[in-house]
Amino acid sequence: MKIKYNTFIVKDMDESIKFYTEVMGFKxxxxxxxxxxxxxxxxxxxxxxxxxxxxxxxxxxxLFCIGMDVEDMNTTLKELKSKGAKITMEPITITVGTLxxxxxxxxxxxxxxxxx
Length: 116
What we know:
Number of strands: 8
Structural class: alpha+beta
Low-confidence stretches: none
Mean pLDDT: 93
Radius of gyration: 15 Å
Distance between the termini: 16 Å
Strand order of the largest sheet: 2-3-4-1-5-8-7-6
Order of helices and strands: EHEEEEHEEE
Largest sheet: 8 strands, mixed
């Protein structure tokens, strides 16, 4: 597994984009509108890890999760479960692949994603 992105829920998308591009030096990689009322912006800096900004009405602003790329969702989940990982959401199909969630011992969310 490798860290693919860090997801932040934002109050003001324009203000957040301005901060991450003008102050932090990131570039917009892609924009997504998965459903009405939700907007996702992926920002790229140096290296492979990205920042994902999400504006929606469902979550409180702040760090939402760390996203990790996996090659094989079923194999990865089987291995993690055998080691006692707390899976908080079993895999679902999303537009870019398959997504599942687990928590670390402190309650931090970790998203696992297998891309198509």
